[in-house]
Amino acid sequence: MSLLSLTFIFPFIGFLILATMRDRLSQDTARAVGVGSMGLSALCALVVSIQFLTTYESGTVVNIPLWTWMQIGDFAPAFGLSFDGLALTMTGIITGVGFLIHLFASWYMKGESGYSRFFSYMNLFVASMLLLVLADNLLLLYLGWEGVGICSYLLIGFYFHDRANGRAAIKAFTVTRVGDVFLAFGLFLLFREFGTLNIQDIITQAPALYAVNNQNMILATMMLVGGAMGKSAQIPLHTWLADAMAGPTPVSALIHAATMVTAGVYLIARMHPVFLLTPGILLYWVGAVGAITLVVAGFCALAQTDIKRILAYSTMSQIGYMFLALGVGAWQGAIFHLMTHAFFKALLFLSSGAVIIAVHHEQNIFKMGGLRKKIPLVFWSFIVGGGALAAIPFVTIGYYSKDAILWESYAAGHQMLFYMGVFGAFLTSIYTFRMIWFTFYGEEKTHAHKLSGLSYQIPLAVLLVLSTGLGALITPPLQGVLPEGVGKLLEVAGEAHGKHFAEFTAMGAMLAGAAVAYMLYVVNAGQLLAKFKASSIGGAIYYWCYNGLGFDALYDWIFVKPFLLIGRLLKVDPVDKTWGVLPMLASIGNKAVVAIQTGSLRGYAASFGIGMAVLLVLVMMTVV
Fold this sequence. Notes:
Elements (H helix, E strand, L loop, with lengths): L5 H16 L5 H29 L6 E7 L9 E6 L1 H24 L6 H20 L3 H19 L6 H32 L4 H11 L5 H17 L8 H4 L5 H10 L4 H8 L1 H4 L3 H25 L3 H21 L3 H28 L17 H15 L6 H15 L3 H26 L13 H13 L19 H8 L5 H25 L3 H8 L1 H11 L4 H20 L3 H6 L1 H15 L5 H23 L1
Antiparallel strand pairs: 1-2
Helix pairs in contact: 1-2, 1-4, 2-3, 2-4, 3-4, 3-10, 3-15, 3-19, 4-5, 5-6, 6-8, 8-11, 10-15, 13-14, 13-18, 13-23, 14-15, 14-17, 14-18, 15-16, 15-17, 15-19, 16-18, 16-19, 17-18, 17-20, 17-21, 18-21, 22-23
């Protein structure tokens, strides 16, 4: 376990080297440092994981204290790491998938200016995420939490010469910062209640000290959920994710598959004993919000034309499934879907990057077409990755995790959430088919060139295999770390009578979506949709979905415009002008006194006489 700290130290060292040397390094050297540091990190994670699985029993938590971070009275948080089955799963995803993304990025970014700068940000991104999941206390977790936030800003705005990219980076940073403030409030509340921010101490003491629905715990979990919503792009703090596509495609893969958006899911899963004390928050603020998000994201994805924005909304939808799972108590199912999603979403984003390179940086799927013969590896990667996203039964990894979540929600008795999840599967199948059809079939609308290079082929090949049913053989070691879901308990007891109904309903929704998509885009060739979009109602619905159901416009009206108005009012600094009244009065008095200093003896005598007369009158009035 002594190698555990090296998992984030290696990429952090890579960041320091690349950030300080920058343009003095050749691209080959920068590639060696950036990708090599991630390779060493993944190797250390593998060794530590094997050692943990062969040495410790399930449910064991290994604490590795490093040093005391700060000491203020009795407040002395230690800089320490904590490793269990959940941390092992997250570390494996971050380092393994992160390494493949770095390797692909070395090919994708070849010849770009700022090559070293790009990899320095990527290394710091991974180091921050690893610190987040390995931290043994919430203060250190918050440090990693803020680290991934600043790295997302740097990477989304990597092409900062385009003002739109800069605005997208600012938007991502600002919206997630709202969630970060909620999380900070949550940490203050937890420290007030427990006197510590050590995660194990909190989750051990919480059930013993507090009853269910304790008001302090409700308030604390509300704040934690607010933080999770921001990082994991759930309604209402979801608007940043689609615009985050402004960054290079490997950045999108890293954000969506291995790092940032999974942080909120991890936080709720890690603090699950506290959330079990607040079942209302868990069901409505986590589960219901996830269900609403996955449906909203599905509608938005149907109207997108940018291949990366389609995938962005699909990520929002899949994270919604994870929140749904957490809300109904399927803790292990949520983390399993987090792992499977990391595989197939990384595959889809990297494949989309390859498509974009092949068609000379075109991202509109309606300007592509006919690519399946030009780039066959990318085509099959999209077929497998898209199949996993749509949860094609038995042969793709997405089937095993998504359908397990739907079964858990059905078994827990939350029928509304179950059917919302099923409807989300129907929408997912439609927009996935649509994306693949217009990208790889039909006539070639943009000339594409063939791709070559092991740096792009190896990551796609590995992720392709992991996204098939073979990837489902990887079982996260979560026994004893996270509770079993109701569905799993019913299966063990032999009473899972509704499981087949839930599975067949989910599969039926997926097949129905594929059939609808085939009829609309292949048989009808989009004519029916064209007529619908040409109508006033259809055009309004399409515009509404294309623009994210109007959330950006709503926030602009509620928050942005009032803020700008206040800024314009404060531009003249009324506070300073108010205090400026005093020196203004002094100045007026000074000018009045100066005006009577004429130097005329006759004037002075007259003034003196008038003054004496006034004083005499006042004295006489007083005496009387």
